[in-house]
Predict the structure of Esterase.
Amino acid sequence: MSSTRMVNGVLGIPLTTPTATAVFAILTVIGLIVLLLRRYRVWFAHGVPLAVTAALGSTVVAALLIEKVWKPFPDRLPWAVYGWAATALLAVSLLIGRWFVRRRDRARPLVATALVVSAVLVVISAAGRIDAVYDAYPTVRTVLGISDYRTVPFDDPSLRASQTVPVEDWSASDDLPATGAVTSVTIPGTVSGFRAREARVYLPPAYFSDPRPELPVLVLLAGQPGSPEDWLVGGHLPSTMDAYAAQHHGLVPVVVLADGTGGQFDNPLCADSHLGNVATYLAVDVPAWVRDDLQVDDDPRARAVGGLSYGGTCALQLATTRPDVYPTFLDMSGQAEPTIGDRASTIRDVFGGDAEAFARNNPADLLARNRYPDSAGAFVVGLDDSEYRAGVEQLASLARSAGMDVHLTELPGTHSFALWSAGLEKELPWLAQRLGLGN
């Protein structure tokens, strides 16, 4: 086996499969046993209880700060996350006890090495189990930030302006690349003043032809916490789009992975407020940049907005507040309403106590008040998503009553990237047809 194949094999090791999570559990048990084993009763009588107390106490304090004070997430973290975090802290506490209290342990090279390695294994395994909750980093490659998709600079000669033709008048040439490519670019908040992070843009194989077909555009948003790159890593977007393009002569929508929050832990609720004019950024600045800097179909009927979790909520907000800009949407595991935890806090802290301002940004209220006969959308949610499923089902019903042409897809899984990547793959044929690419 060549060194390249060996490296690729290691980088491709899955981290979120049932087998991987079982291995992490076994390593955790082994690591804790090594850290616990000592022949002295005083260790079990005092050392271990102190380590357990320190780990649990630290976890409880962290949970209270996160859920009650900092509130970086709209919903509470799953208990599994806190459980595995406590496990990692327990390993660190046991190592500290063995290392600093029992000096003889660190004076023995083999024992010291075994203790450190065991603690590291437990911490890594706990991180692996937390990762499996969301399926955010599915392989070693993604953890290390090594891409497995083609990239191209935005100023590359292959992206220079060329002649364009309507999709129906275009035909694939023999030199069409086998895959699309991802580029990075800053989309300025010219009108909104919103300071967005760098966006990613997926350009299909057909975009690299001359003449270039006027392709439709999907603006795709990440969750919160999150970043535009999440769709490339946990969401498997390049491989999903490439697979569809391979079966359709290189044709698939251009995907703009825009920033809908402004920061990893920011939660501006996809509205215009003192937290940032996100709605104007996504409904005005992003479409304007697409029109001026990409050669695509600028007809709103060839434009869609979608997202996962917070991004799904945001997509439906834009579809209900600006149907003229985004008449097509993809809401994947979105919230029942935009929130920073509860409605009262949301109205008070984001909308300055103005309940009507909240209602003007809440899809459920807008769907109850207005009609959307020209809009269409897809709702996707996991069958095991106990936190979001009921809300998604209710919004799908409201959208249908408001005249939207919508459908609901419920897939096996929960609130994770495994579900969202499968959902995108499932809805892509419908989306492509809706945006004008045909079958």
Remarks:
- The longest strand covers residues 376-382.
- The two ends are 42 Å apart (CA to CA).
- The chain has two domains: 17-134, 149-434.
